[in-house]
Amino acid sequence: xxxxxxxxxxxxxxxxxxxxxxxxxxxxxxxxxxxxxxxxxxxxxxxxxxxxxxxxxxxxxxxxxxx
Length: 67
Description:
Helices cover 0% and strands 39% of the residues.
């Protein structure tokens, strides 16, 4: 079973649920955990928090965009 990780405005990807923390879910994306906020059910979660086994969808909002 995987978790759908949505990088807001940039697409989403199914990530295997064997990750330990929410920050580990960022691996398929070209982002640093220091430049995003991670949301579960509309609430921010720390990137080092263990993943709740009932979570199926995570939204990631990029705070810094290069340009």
